[in-house]
Design a protein that fits this description.
With 443 residues, the protein is an alpha/beta fold. It is built from 20 helices and 13 strands. The strands form 3 sheets. Strands 1-6-5-2-3-4 form a 6-stranded mixed β-sheet, with helices on both faces. It has a 5-stranded mixed β-sheet with strand order 9-13-12-10-11. The structure holds tyrosine.
Amino acid sequence: MEVDLLSDVKRRGLISQISSPETLEKLLKEKQTIYMGIDPTAHALHVGHLLPAMCLMHFHIRGHTVHPVIGGATGLVGDPSGRTKARDTDSLADDRIEQNAQKLTASMDLFFRKGIQYAERRWNHEGESIQAPEILNNLAWTKDVSLLEFLRTVGVHARMNTMLGRESVKLRLSSEEGMSFTEFTYQLLQGYDFYKLFTDRGCRIQIGGSDQWGNILAGQDLISRLAGPEQEVVCLTTPLFTTSSGEKFGKSSGNAVWLDGTLTSPFDFYQFFARTTDEDAPKLLKMLTLLPMDKIEATLEEHKAAPERRVAQYLLADELTDLVHGVDGVRQAQAATKALFAKDYTGIKAEDVIDALRGDPRLVCCLESELFDKPLLRLAHEHHLVPSMSAARNLVSSRGFYMNNRRVEDTGFMLQRSDLLDGRLAIVRAGKGNHLILALSDA
Ligand SMILES: N[C@@H](Cc1ccc(O)cc1)C(=O)O
C-alpha cells in the first residue's frame, strides 16, 4: 500500500522548502516525532488549515509520532509573520485565546479521528486501527518559565542580526506602525517550543506553512546552540495555495469554509469543492486527498476528455467531504446536491437532505397543519422564495414555478401528502435556480 513518504508528499505538491533534504531522508529511515503548531486565533479549523494538516497526516498514518501543538502561549503574543499590522488587543484577550484553544483542540482531534478513518478506508488498512495523535498546548511548558530564566536560557543565544533579518520582522520594521517588542519575541517563543519538544520528546522535524520558515529556523538555531550543532533537526514547510483567481485558498465569498459541520454545513462544504476551477481541482486532488496517484491521474484523463462533466470536481468534493465529515456527510451532501440540482429525484432520502441543509435558509421544516392547509404559493411567499404573492402568481403564469420538478399551473395549488418525496419533502423552485425545500417535521 505504501509509497515512500517523502516521494509521495513531494509529488503531491505538499512541500515548499526543506532545510536539509539529506538529513530528512536519513531521519526518515526510522520512526520520527514531528510537530506542527497552530495558534488559537480562530476557534475552529477551516479549509485553509488543510494543507499543512494533510502533510502531517501523511506522517501520522505511516507510523511516525505527530503532535499538533495548540499555541495557548504563542496565541497570547501573536505571530507577526505575514502580517502588516499587529493584532488588536481584543483578539489577544486571555479568555478569548483560552476558549479558542479549547475548541481548536477538539476541532483538531476530530479532524484526525475522521481523517484516520478516511485513510484506513482509502488504504485498505488491516490490523490494529491507527490511534489519534496526542495534541499538546505550548502553555504547558511556557507558563512557568520566568522572564529571567527565559532571557538567560533562550535570549542569550538569540542573535539580534538573525532575528532582525527574518522576513516577518523586516516587513514590519519598514512599515509605519513598526513592531512591538512582544511581537518581536514571537520567533523565540516558537523556537523554544521546538527546543522543548526536541529535548522532552525527541522531536526533530517541524512542519508549518511557508510563512513559518523563519520561526521554524529560529527553533533549529536554538537547538543547535543549546544542544550542540551536531543535532539533526529539519524544518519543512508546505506551500501557501493560491487559487487560479489569485485568492487565498479557503474562503467562499469572503467567508471561511469551516471543517465544523455546525459552522459550515456538509452540503456547503461539498459545494465549495464542487465549484473548484479546472485549474485548481487537479492540484487539490493531489494535495488534499489520500487517493492513490494513479487513480487521480486516471480521473484527470477522463476529466480532460469531457471537462463539462466535472468529474475531477465531484471526486474532489466526495473525497474531502469523506475526509472531514465521513461517509454520512458524503451521503447527505450528495442527497442535498440532488435535491437542488438534479432533474431526477429517485432514491432521495429526506433525512439526508435535511441533515445536510440544517441551518440553510433554503430548508424550512413545517408542521402538517402548515404544509397541507396553506396554498403552496403562500408558503413560497411566507418563506421568502418569492418577494410577493403577485410575483408568485406571475411566475406560475410564465411557467416558472415548480414543485418536485412538476410545473405548478394552478395558483391555488395545495400540497397533498402523496406529493411529498420520501414522504417528507417538497422541493419548490422559482425560475431556474431559486429553491425552497419544505420538509414535513417528524415531530
Ligand atoms: N506561528 C504559527 C503557530 C505556531 C505556534 C507555536 C509553535 O511552536 C509552532 C507554530 C502560526 O501562526 O501559524
